[in-house]
Amino acid sequence: MDHYDVATIRARFPALREGARGAGGVDLDGPAGTQVPESVIEAMAEVHRNGISNRSGGFPTSDASDRITAEARSALADLFNSGPEEIAFGQNMTSLTFAVSRALAREWIEGDEIVVTLLDHDANVAPWRLAAEERGVTVHTVAFDAQSGCLDPDAIAAVVGPRTRLVAVTHASNALGTIPDVKAIVEIAHTVGALSFVDGVHYTPHGIVDVAALDTDFLVASSYKFFGPHLGALYGKAEILERLDAYKVIPAPDRGPGKWETGTQSFESLAGATAAVDHIASLGEGRSRRDRIVEGQQRVRRHETALMDRFLAGSAEIPGLRIHGIADPGLLDQRVPTFSVDIDGAQPADTAAAMRKQDVYARSGDFYAVGVMTHLGFQDSGGLVRIGFVHYTTSEEVDRTLDALAHAAE
Length: 410
Fold this sequence. Notes:
The chain has a seven-stranded mixed sheet, sandwiched between helices. Strands 9-10-13-12 form a four-stranded antiparallel sheet, with helices on one face. A two-stranded parallel ribbon has the order 1-11. The protein is of the alpha/beta class. It has two domains: about 5-35 and about 300-410, Aspartate Aminotransferase, domain 1 (Alpha-Beta Complex), CATH 3.90.1150.10; about 40-280, Aspartate Aminotransferase, domain 2. Strand 6, helix 9 (about 210-215) and strand 7 form a beta-alpha-beta unit. Helices cover about 40% and strands about 15% of the residues. The protein has helices at about 5-10, 15, 40-50, 60-80, 95-105, 125-135, 155, 180-190, 210-215, 240-245, 265-280, 290-315, 350-355, 370-375, 395-410, and strands at about 25, 85-90, 115, 140, 165-170, 195-200, 220, 230-235, 320-325, 340-345, 360, 365, 385-390.
């Protein structure tokens, strides 16, 4: 594919052609979960067609589980730019974060400190708060700028000190779309010997994830946000994963990434996650899968930037519509195509309902971005309306979204 052909990409997604959202509807709910291509559906079905057993049995259906698991580790390693031995899987990002928080907290003592932010999804806040409470650890919560939606690394540097043990931050806000300077924040954590934990769930479908460049100690993502099944994936530096004691069942693996995986994994989901990574890779060209992923995400970024620019230009013409967060077309490199909006005098639930009548599907609420909504003053008033574009969104769908918002504003 030498150019970005959104029609060809959309044709891969049965739900966009035939499903409840494909019957003329505009799907703006990618931030809550994307649709999946036929290749992912087929990969998962093939697991059951061929038969499956638990791992390490030494017979064909068990060998298949071993192969599927290894392939999934390799695929996610290519997506994150890590080693396969640094990839573990779980039910979802939240479960994995709780697992890591419990393991890390074993090393904390009273008087230690951790840092979280108001820009984050609560799944990258609550597990750390709970662990800190159990260990007598102080939690510093860093606010973002309410006007711009941006998180200043200097604000994190101001609360980091010699007793800081962890800094948790999002790679992109699931409510405002803001992309913080994660690399700078990781460097701030490391200057005092603290670990960094990055929530990559919302960023992964929109940008190039590179844990080596970030030098982060941990990063988590969910494959159902990047065109795959419901599955969580954890990256951790190999030496840290090996050093920490995971909460596990004996005789579960006590070495390597397997020690972080509780119970029997969903092997069909692992196969689906591999297919989702291959779908992203298919959007680009290159000798290795990592090369294809990088080029594919660069093409996605250009497409989504054009969608954002179109949306911002059109939204400026709708009376009473407010976009919270970055709305300057010159700063689109600092956000992903996720917008939280409201209309003067309208309840967010009513706005979303009015859009649904136009077959434009968005949701209202806080989206588990409790810190964001509280800081902006919307937590107790129904939150905001979230509009999410992804790589299969068309310019015509952006126009339909604008029309639906204009209709709601009337």
